[in-house]
Amino acid sequence: MPNVMSAQDSTHIRSLRSWVISANEPNCDFPIQNLPFSRFRRRDSNESWRIGCAIGDQILDLKAAGIIDTDDMNAFMASTPSERRMLRVRISEGLQQGSRTQSAWSGSLVAQSMAEYTVPCRIGDYTDFYTGIHHATAVGKLFRPDQPLLPNYKWVPIGYHGRSSSILPSGQGFRRPQGQSKLPDAAAPTFGPSRRLDYELELGYFVGQGNALGKPIPMEEAEDHLFGVGLLNDWSARDLQAWEYQPLGPFLAKNFATTVSPWIVTMEALAPFRSKFERPPNDPPPLPYLDSLKNREYGAVDIVLEAWIQTPRMRTSGEKPVRLTCSRSEQASYWTPAQLITHHTVNGCNLQSGDLLGSGTLSGLQRDEAGSLLELTLGGKQSINLPNGETRTFLEDGDTVVLRGYCEREGATRIGLGEAVGTVLEQ
Length: 427
Hints:
With 427 residues, the chain is α+β, with helices and mostly antiparallel strands. Helix content is 19%, strand content 25%.
């Protein structure tokens, strides 16, 4: 894949080491080959939100170090691809062992343990897609055993417009939503708190440069409009969803909370982990506007995704979260990030810097690769057993869900996406 290799540069060299010692530790999420961005401030301070770059267990305050002159993440994200690459090279060179900037930049480091985070940028609009074909198939079998996938699934990227005002930063809790639900044999719906609360293991793609209203983004240019990726948990009230989703799709079942990780891993950092985009031989090829040589050669992104749970009992007894599932985005996604950008704008819709596109739940083929409790419990029919003897069909009050993600491939340095953490608050 020559295009993938040409997208790599001096910032991806495996032998690079940083003068921030923690960045050189094995399995570190944030080695010098990663360099993701967030908005942070020192904990319990009244400081304004700053733009930071993760290196090991530290954050480099970019403005304090004199690297940029703004605290506006959206303006920062709207820079051109060439400007982003040049900045990445500058940060990488300054953090390398032996760099002459060590003494100047070391005073601009803040320990991640001493920081608090907000959402990584101003998210003006949020669209959630449904790219996980194994999730779509598994959920479809629960409701339509004879036709799990609807006829349009393999032709058009399915999505719906979400609610940006309820997007939460990692670590923030939320209250169980209320709404209408209806049992299959009931004569009428009832109102009350959701009893089938679920998580969804997703990726969130952040828009860098936007486009003008009425000017679609072609596939050949779509990657230039992607800034990076983070973890996303699109919490779902399955009982509310089942009653309300016809005929217009998700509403109250989805708009009460969505958790995003604090770090955006840039598309430049993901260059070593790109893969060919290939459909099964008997599936229809994408329509021409959703196809390009570049997308076929390296449109897919290979990210390992995990969901973990910690119950209140586990927290009280000092037990760490336990893993529920593990999947890979490369195997789960039926559409690429570039295709989502192009399809979203093909009708003339204007995207803006900071807009968020959710991937939809990214599940694998096997049950232990399922990205939601709906799949793991077969619609709530089979409880899952936790190591401490507890069971779950759906989330209970006090449960904390932790999403983790990382990229690893032979010949490349492992990089991580950090965590997206959310807790269902006690009533």
